[in-house]
Amino acid sequence: MKRRAWVGSVLVLGVIAGAGALVLRGNHEEIKWRTAKVEMGSITQRITATGTLNALIQVPVGTQVSGVVTSLTADFSSLVKKGQVIGRIDPTPWLTALKAAQAQLQSATDSKANAEIVYKRNLELWKAKLLDDNDLDGFHLALKVATANLETAKAGLETAKTNLGYCTLKAPVDGVVVARLVDVGQTVAASFATPSVFIIAQDLAKMKVSAAIDEADIGQVRVGQRAFFTVDSYPDKQFKGVVSEVQLNPVVTNNVVTYNVIMEVTNETRSTYLPPSDSGAPKDPAKAAPAPATGKGHRPELASSQTGTIEYTTARYMPPGSPVYNGNLALFPGMTANCTIVTNRKEDVLRVPSAALRFNPAAFVPMEEKRPAAASGPRPAVTGGGGGLGKGVTARTDDRLWILVNGKPKLLPVRAGVSDGSFTEVAGEGVVPGLVVLSGVEEYKKTMTQGSGSPLGGPGGMHH
């Protein structure tokens, strides 16, 4: 029993001594740093946004009179000319109004003629001193009133003629009908607003993209900057455009402020990058289509500003032989565009991976090893009114990189410039091509010998 007690005491003393030695030795750390190099290269700064495609000039065609739509002579994809009749509104009430205006004009004309005769007759009596001045003035006033009523009646007749003319809808521009918003038999009411009947795109060869740019990025957008975008129909095709307008009117949605930016783009023929179709459709629609109803075999020519071919259609509201646009251009109105605007580009500048500017080794090294590193260079002075910061103004945190000196991280103040997300321009004392900087941690092991003695992973895990 005494021997066993003695052996146990020795073991306990040995464990205590070993633990003390481990405590004196402290924590053991193994860090494998991830590094990057400062290099010369180009940086292209971009802004991304989502926009909507539309024709550069898109004209809604409405009616200024109320009534029932009695006929339509254009439909979706119709090619129309300026002044072409594309629809009619029931003119019956407006014909009645015209007849009433004509009757009022005739009545006003007769009243004026009678007032002139009466005035002239009484003027002779006044000259013969058979009528006093007050009576003559009354006849003169009656003539003036009759003259004014005649002018009012003439204006009413012109208004009636104009309203009757509004019953015939005409295309205001050459173009393609991209939308028909009513049907024959539908009643349109123009009492408070002008209802749209058609929407005509003047030239589908010129398109525009309207994109909402966040207020944080709008300050970088300028007219004339290059823009690129893709659409879901052709994910591998990149279209080129240019910023043509930066609208100042803010759009607030759920407390988010955006600004509309317009980009112009030239449409392209989609057959250049779509595989040929073997669906059995005729290659020349004009040869396969029936002759126009006129029997003359005449095909209206497509406007020179449009790109496409003429086809003949059996659409509901187009007469036989009417020309239509067959959609030979790639971009359609209403497509969603994934836009990229190039706001800045610099060539041959010093750059580092952006991750190096975001990295901070504070989680991997003791505090006493980080603090002396901050004294590696003078801190830039902050200038302002009176030599200090004004009221409500805060100093901007310096950009920084970390380098290894004797195996320990050391802070290197830098000035960051433009960034494309992957790389950032840097400048400052000691920043030269080939400089190795820290950008992360490949592997971090920290063995805790105090307490349970089991190995623990470092902050953030083993791999970063």
3D architecture notes:
Residues 15-28, 279-305, 367-397 and 447-464 have low confidence and may be disordered. Among the domains are: 27-42 and 349-457, no CATH class; 91-166, Helix Hairpins, CATH 1.10.287. It contains six helices and 22 strands. It is elongated. Helices cover 23% and strands 37% of the residues. The protein has a six-stranded antiparallel barrel.
| Count of helix runs | 6
Average pLDDT, rounded to a whole number, is 79
Largest sheet, if any?
Answer: 6 strands, antiparallel, barrel
Low-confidence stretches: 15-28, 279-305, 367-397, 447-464
* Helix/strand structural class: alpha+beta
How many whole angstroms does the radius of gyration measure? 42 Å
Query: What is the string of SSEs from the N terminus onward?
Result: HEEEEEEHHEEEEEEEEHEEEHHEEEEE
Strand arrangement across the biggest beta sheet:
2-11-14-13-12-17
| Strand residues, percent | 35-45%
Helix coverage percent: 10-25%
Q: What's the quaternary structure here?
A: single chain
What overall geometry do the principal axes of the alpha carbons give?
elongated
- Terminal Cα separation, in Å? 56 Å
Q: What's the total count of β strands?
A: 22
Write the SSE topology.
Blueprint: H1 2-25, E1 28-37, E2 39-55, E3 58-62, E4 67-72, E5 79-80, E6 85-89, H2 92-127, H3 133-166, E7 168-170, E8 175-180, E9 187-188, E10 196-201, E11 206-214, E12 226-231, E13 234-253, E14 256-266, H4 285-288, E15 310-312, E16 323-325, E17 336-353, H5 354-358, H6 367-370, E18 399-405, E19 408-419, E20 423-427, E21 436-447, E22 455-457
Antiparallel strand pairs: 1-21, 2-11, 2-17, 3-10, 4-6, 4-9, 5-8, 6-7, 8-10, 11-14, 12-13, 12-17, 13-14, 15-16, 17-20, 18-19, 19-20, 21-22
